[in-house]
Amino acid sequence: YVTVVCRKLEKYLDAQTTPLIVAAVEYEQSFYRQVSSYRYLLEKGILGNPDGLDHEAMRQAAWTIVEPYFAEARRASLGHFADLSNTEKTSDRLDEILPAARHGRVRTLFLQRQARVWGTFDEATSSVEVHDQSAPGDTDLLDLATVYVLQSQGMIYALPREEMPTPNPQAVLFRY
User: Fold this and answer.
1) Chain centroid, CA 144 distance in Å
2) Closest by Cα among 129, 122, 134, 91 to 109
3) Predicted TM-score (pTM) of this structure
4) Do the beta carbons of residue 109 and residue 157 sit within 8 Å?
5) Phi, psi (deg, nearest 5) at residue 127
6) Cβ–Cβ < 8 Å for 134, 122
7) Binning pLDDT at 50, 70 and 90, where does residue 176 land?
8) Residues ≥6 apart with Cβ < 8 Å to 5
């Protein structure tokens, strides 16, 4: 049974980089780990019978395990950005970010939490127009960049201002 569940789940997660947490009693977790080849199976699991946990308790237990994983990934991405800053492999300019994101060339997008940048983006010409305030026909260009990056399976980090790698409310690490 554990092998069947494992293979089905691995087929579903095949091209993903999503961390996997096993919620089961100890011996079932052990069996699962023996048969799993999923690269992102986390070492720590939620011990015990998951039937006894409500959704919120399960979410909280999972977040406790996975939060350090995401924090480390964020630190590594910020370090990678710093290593490549001042090269053609990074940018914090929307006129470079939006066309690259539209064409799937953004690996990682860093956004300042709650930031808004109003303007327009012409997909045909890749021209970007930024406005100080929202005007009729405007869109939040950071939201648009987010949609494009997610469509190409890029990574997005929403950061407080003090953690942003540049003074601008957006920055990217391009695919290379």
Assistant:
1) 15
2) 91
3) 0.78
4) yes
5) -90, 140
6) no
7) low
8) 32
